Predict the structure.
Amino acid sequence: MSHEWQDRVTLLSMKEVGELPNTFTTRVARVQGVHPRDLYAWLDTGQVLQLSRGVYRRADAPLPSYPDFLAIAHRSPVAIICCVSAAVVHELTDELPVAVQIAVPGRSRAPRIDYPPTAAFRFDEARFEVGLSRMEAAPGEWVRIYDAARTVVDLMRLRHRFGEPLAHAALQRYLKRRGAKPASLLEYADALDVYGPVRRAVDIASAG
């Protein structure tokens, strides 16, 4: 085969960046026919950005609001954004965790993600999806996250780790917002075996 014919075959078979999803993994690229050398070339020319090991985003895609969440969702699809990281999204705290906090089912293997920095919590499998919601991390791209009420309850459950002040401040912020549902707090608290502390905290906050 002549070099001219080889070059022609290469050009005909080469995948275009624009044919891939805005965010994609090495596996998705491979399934869609992208040769590793093409992926490396796109990285070198800035047509593709690396969000995490094996996770990429097209440079022409809309800017993501939460690129770290997007990367983690592709690395660990079962994971759910939780605790302080979820509280930041729900505007329940001004504290910023040093690592993205995610929940994984109790018996599953926690993902080992060096970048973005990630802290995994094993939550009970039977109640793992209680309060599950989702958020748009980039236009048209969604990640799993606990809703505001479940987040407050988790902070109360783990107040020995994150601190009483943070947990109670998040609860108070939640109760003061329009559309707050104290009944949901208590329902989740009952399901997650922390009804007593949450009930007392709600009563105190309501009395004040």
